[in-house]
Known about the structure:
By secondary structure, this protein is an all-alpha fold. 79% of the residues lie in helices and 0% in strands.
Amino acid sequence: MTLLKKLVIALFIGTAFLAAAPTAMAKPAGKIENQSPEGVKAAFDEAIAAAEAADAALQALTPGANNDAVLELMKEAKQALNHIESATVNREKERANGFLKDARGALIKGDLTASKASMTSAVEKFKELKKIYLSF
């Protein structure tokens, strides 16, 4: 009887491991698998263009104006930043994302001056990311 219990438990655990294996091996959502160097450069260009568009829209924004379009452009810049798959710039990418987050938060709170300063820093950091990648 104990042998039968051990066999059933072993069979159950083995089946559970086999059922979990495909989900454990699946790639994370949104991750670009084996991105080529050309793909990384294109992702940098896309992120820089998105950040510059958000910065230009933010600089043109007047106090009291509707900022939904600028917030949408900032969101697109963040998504473009996430398309960059390079381990050499991960730390700086997080810092750029922090500047972008600060700019977005300040804009939501209504502090246009702080938002413009953070967004300008974010654009500079985005450009610095590409320089770091190309110099590596």
